[in-house]
């Protein structure tokens, strides 16, 4: 068995596609009317489809999962984040853990938690 994708729920799929392209360079693999597969296995699904399927709403910023990315030049990444998305909501700005790894945590436009860290 193999994990193929991770799906996150978004309100505006085009806005989210731009966000993940601007910051992480993810490209569209498949656009299927409210479900969009991006490179690296990230799937965006419009909130309406999710709610119709589950019969339940979503809870943004629930902090029960996060998308984790690694970036060797994290200072350049933070500069890009602040340039493209100056109003991003941070959980923590760039910091260094006791073991030496630098990380930044923030929410995407829909409240999905993201961590970007230097390789360990």
TrEMBL record:
InterPro entries: Glyas_Bleomycin-R_OHBP_Dase, Glyoxalase-like_dom, GlyoxalaseI/FosfomycinResist, VOC_core. It comes from the Bacteria. It holds the Pfam family Glyoxalase_2. This is Uncharacterized protein. Signal peptide: none annotated.
């Amino acid at each position: 068995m193999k994990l193929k994708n991770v799906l996150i729920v978004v309100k505006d799929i085009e806005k989210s596609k731009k966000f993940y392209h601007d910051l992480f360079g993810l490209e569209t693999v498949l656009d299927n009317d409210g479900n969009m597969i991006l490179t690296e296995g990230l799937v965006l699904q419009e909130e309406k489809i999710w709610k119709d399927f589950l019969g339940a709403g979503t809870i943004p910023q629930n902090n029960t999962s996060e998308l984790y990315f690694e970036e060797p030049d994290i200072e350049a990444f933070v500069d890009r984040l602040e340039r493209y998305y100056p109003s991003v909501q941070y959980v923590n700005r760039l910091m260094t853990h006791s073991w030496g790894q630098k990380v930044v945590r923030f929410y995407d436009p829909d409240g999905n938690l993201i961590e970007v860290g230097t390789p360990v």
